[in-house]
Amino acid sequence: xxxxxxxxxxxxxxxxxxxxxRQRELKxxxxxxxxxxxxxxxxxxxxxxxxxxxxxxxxxxxxxPSDDSRFTIPIIDLHSTAQNPQLRSIIIDQIRxxxxxxxxxxxxxHGVPSTVTAEMLAGxxxxxxxxxxxxxxxxxxxxxxxxxxxxxxDLYKAPVTNWRDTLTCAIAPRGAESKDMPLICRDIILNxxxxxxxxxxxLFELVSEALGLGxxxxxxxxxxxxxxxxxxxxxxxxxPELAIGTSDHSDSxxxxxxxxxxxxxxxxxxxxxxxxxxxxxxxLVINIGxxxxxxxxxxxxxxxxxVLAKSEGARISVACFFRYQFPPESERKVYGPIKELIxxxxxxxxxxxxxxxxxxxxYTKGLNGVSAxxxxxx
Length: 378
Prior knowledge:
The protein is of the alpha+beta class. It has one domain (about 60-375): Jelly Rolls. About 30% of the residues lie in helices and about 20% in strands. The chain is built from 12 helices and 14 strands. A hairpin with a 2-residue loop joins strand 8 (about 265-270) and strand 9. The N and C termini lie far apart (about 50 Å). This is 1-aminocyclopropane-1-carboxylate oxidase homolog 3-like. Its cofactor is Fe cation.
C-alpha cells in the first residue's frame, strides 16, 4: 500500500511553476490517492493550473444578495402532513410550485433528528481528515465498487478540476455490506440513510400528488428504491476566486436529499442568475433530478447548480441520490414519461431509457454544464 508520505510526494508534482502538462498533473493528483485534501496538507499556497476556473471571476450572472426575498428558494415545513389533510394539501401545492419553478426547496420538520444530521456531517469530516494510510485503501475509480473514495469522478474528462473530494457509498437496494464501509463513519451512514429512505417514501408521495397522480405512483415505479450517498469534502481554498468547488451541473437522480453544513457556497441557477442556497439550521435541501424531469415529461425541473470554493472550511455536505447504482435494477427497469402525463396537447418530450444507460451517458459527459437530458429528447 502506498504511504501518505509517498502519496504526498506525488501530489507535490502539481506545481504552478513547471511547463503545463494537464494530463501529467491530473495523473499526479490521482496517483497520490490523497485528493485535494492532500494538496492542502502539503502546504499548497497557489492553485495548480488544473483547478483554475476561468469563467468564475468573469461571470456576468453573480448571485443576488441572499436577503432578496424574490430570489430565495422555497422553504417548506412538512409538519403534520399525515395527520392534517388541509395542511397536506397546502404542502403539496408548495412542493408543486417549488418543483416546477425552482427545482429546489428546503424542508423543515422532516423527521431526521438534528443529532443524526450533526453526526452525519461529523462522520464525513472524520473520514476525509483521517490519516492518509487509512483513507487510501478506499481510493478507486471503479464505480462497480459499493464503496469508494476519490477526487472528481470525471477527473480526466472535465475542463476544470473541482476543489472537492468524495466518499461514495451505494446504500439500496443492494448496497455495501456494513463490513465494507469505513469504520470511522459506518454506524452513522447506516443510521442516517435508513432515515433518508423513509423520508424518501414521504417525499415521493407528496411529489406524486403534486403531479396529479395517486400518492403511490412514483414509489410504485421504483423512484425511491435506489439510494447512493456522496460525502463531499471541500477543503479551505488558498485562491477561492480562481477555483470552483463543484462545476455547474444538474443531478442524475430522481430526487436528491442534501445535508449541508453552515459554511454555504451552494448556488442554484434561476432566471439566469446564481442564487445562494442559504444554510438553515435543521433543514434539508431537496432538488429534482434529471430522471424525475424525464418521467414527469418535463413538468418538474432539474436545474443546474454549483458550489463555490471558499477560503474558510472545510465545507462538508452529504448528497443522497435516489436512483439505482447497479444491475440488475439499473438495466432492467425502463423509464420514460409517465403515460398519465402525456396527451395530444403535451406529447412525450423524452424517449425511454434505463438508469444504466442514462448514468453511463452522464458520467461520460461529466460536469460540463450541459444537461444529460438533451441526449434523450425526442
